[in-house]
Amino acid sequence: MASDVKGLERIWRAFGYSLAGFRAAWRHEAAFRQELALSVVLLPVAFWLARNWLDLALLIGSCVLVLIVELLNSAIEALTDRVGIERHELSGRAKDLGSAAVLLSLVLMAGVWAGVAALRFG
């Protein structure tokens, strides 16, 4: 079903849906709250640790990537739970794949932070 909403109103509504998504993640997803708290703590550290703008972009970007992947994982989990509460191999696989994506993003973030720290102090 196509929407008749166009232009700035469409953008404004999309922004509202995004804010609703952030509120839902904060309210219902403990992992998102934990990763957001970690990012808030790491943000000032990134400004101190970075030697240049590229380092800063990598440090902050890796934190943002973890939050993005967590939001997508939470969406997969919510949709899977909505489809049915009974155990199903494909539902479990979908949730496990989402969890693996979050783990990879966390490993990437740790690697970026370790690499930048090694360059700064090495």
What does this entry look like structurally?
With 122 residues, this protein is mostly helical. The longest helix is centred in the last third of the chain and has 33 residues, at 89-121. It has helices at residues 7-28, 30-49, 53-83, 89-121. The chain has one domain (30-121): Helix Hairpins. Helix content is 87%, strand content 0%.
CATH architecture: Orthogonal Bundle
Category from helices, strands and their pairing:
mainly alpha
The residue ranges in which pLDDT falls below 50 over 5 or more consecutive positions are: none
Q: Main sheet, how many strands, which sense, barrel?
A: none
Shape: globular
Number of domains: 1
Count every beta strand, where a strand is a DSSP E run of 2 or more residues. 0
Please report the number of helical segments: 4
**How much strand content do the residues show?**
under 5%
> What would you report as the Rg, rounded to the nearest angstrom?
18 Å
Find the CATH topology: Helix Hairpins
The topology string of helices and strands comes to HHHH
Q: What level of helicity do the residues show?
A: over 70%
Short description:
The chain is mainly α. It has four helices and no strands.
Features:
122 residues, Helix Hairpins
Give the SSE layout.
Elements (H helix, E strand, L loop, with lengths): L6 H22 L1 H20 L3 H31 L5 H33 L1
